[in-house]
């Protein structure tokens, strides 16, 4: 069953960022820099490189810097133009023009499923991508979301990005079990069950969902039927499981390296990894790293 190619995606950015406090007290975690660019720019670039044209960003109080960042900055741009600084001018303008942006608020932090529900009107009745901004995926061959969209076009339903994690880490993730160990296409498996943040002894496998999804629009109705789950929150994982009674759910073992920027170590190491890929920044980082004694 082939589906239409999704052209819209949702970026849930309403989370409180408690794992990176106090940095995130007044600054959204999505605006934390990875090298010299806010994390959300990497997400938006992945979306656009995957063929997404319109993004709905779900925000909340203390998140207005995201809207300002994705908008024009006429005063700043005028100053940079006057100073004849075209490099910085295009760096500032770059993200404004990449996609069409809509912003919706999530008034209460009721969970990831509830945050996605806030995008119901802007998405409408089409399949769409969901990109969790804590997860940055470096996939130079083909962006992670594009890999899921390719799979979705072949098989329809919902497609979740998954990766193997050490069993002791299952409580950090949504975890899937497979209907069959045999893929229907390379790296693509039918999902039998999903559990949000199981303890290792309750985990159905060590295949963890990471923050990239292609969802069928039926997910919105499924979210409205989803009761609070892990952590007392309305979980996207639970809504996908409900939708799985009507539509096939697929797990895509994507290729690429996934970074978690949601905690201080992850934020720093991701920043380092991306700075080291930049010819203008790498020499300074290498010089610093050589001064650090090995453990
Ligand atoms: C969310 C999802 C979880 C998924 C994870 C990936 O959890 O609820 O299923 O495995 O993202 O990063 P969170 O990290 O927001 O607690």
SSE order: EEEHEHHHEHHEEHEEEEHHEEHH
> What does the radius of gyration come to?
19 Å
Note the overall shape.
Answer: globular
Low-pLDDT residue intervals, each spanning 5 or more residues: none
Strand order of the largest sheet: 8-11-9-10-12
Give a list of the ligands.
Answer: 1-O-phosphono-alpha-D-glucopyranose
Largest sheet composition: 5 strands, mixed, barrel
Structural class: alpha/beta
Strand content: 15-25%
The total of beta strands comes to: 13
Describe this structure in words.
The chain is of the alpha/beta class. The protein contains eleven helices and 13 strands. The strands form three sheets. The protein has a five-stranded mixed beta barrel with strand order 8-11-9-10-12. A hairpin with a 2-residue loop joins strand 2 and strand 3. The longest helix has 13 residues. It is globular. It starts with 7 loop residues before the first strand and ends in a 5-residue tail after the last helix. 1-O-phosphono-alpha-D-glucopyranose binds next to strand 11 and helix 9.
What keyword list fits this structure?
single chain; 295 residues; alpha/beta; five-stranded mixed β-barrel; 13 strands; 31% helix; globular; binds 1-O-phosphono-alpha-D-glucopyranose
């Amino acid at each position: 069953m082939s589906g239409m190619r999704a052209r819209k995606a949702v970026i849930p950015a309403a989370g409180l960022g408690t794992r990176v406090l106090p940095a995130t007290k007044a600054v959204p975690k999505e605006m934390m820099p990875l090298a010299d660019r806010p994390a959300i720019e990497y997400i938006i670039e992945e979306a656009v490189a995957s063929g997404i044209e319109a993004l709905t960003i779900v925000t909340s109080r203390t998140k207005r810097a995201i809207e300002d960042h994705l908008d024009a900055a006429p005063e700043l741009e005028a100053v940079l133009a006057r100073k004849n600084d075209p490099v910085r001018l295009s760096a500032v303008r770059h993200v404004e023009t990449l996609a069409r942006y809509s912003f919706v608020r999530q008034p209460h932090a009721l969970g990831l499923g509830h945050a996605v529900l806030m995008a119901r009107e802007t998405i409408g009745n089409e399949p769409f991508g969901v990109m969790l901004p804590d997860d940055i995926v470096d996939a130079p061959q083909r962006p992670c979301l594009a890999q899921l969209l390719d799979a979705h076009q072949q098989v329809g339903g919902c497609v979740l990005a998954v990766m193997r994690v050490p069993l002791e880490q299952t409580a950090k993730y949504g975890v899937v079990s497979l209907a069959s160990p045999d893929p229907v296409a390379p790296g693509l498996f039918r999902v039998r069950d999903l559990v949000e943040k199981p303890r290792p002894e309750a985990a159905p496998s060590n295949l963890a969902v990471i923050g990239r999804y292609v969802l069928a629009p039926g997910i919105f109705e499924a979210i409205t039927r989803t009761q609070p789950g892990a952590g007392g929150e309305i979980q996207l994982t639970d809504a996908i499981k409900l939708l799985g009674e009507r539509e096939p759910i697929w797990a895509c073992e994507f290729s690429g390296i996934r970074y978690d920027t949601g905690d201080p170590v992850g934020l720093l190491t991701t920043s380092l990894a991306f700075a080291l890929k930049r010819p203008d920044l790498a020499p300074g980082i290498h010089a610093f790293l050589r001064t650090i004694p090995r453990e």
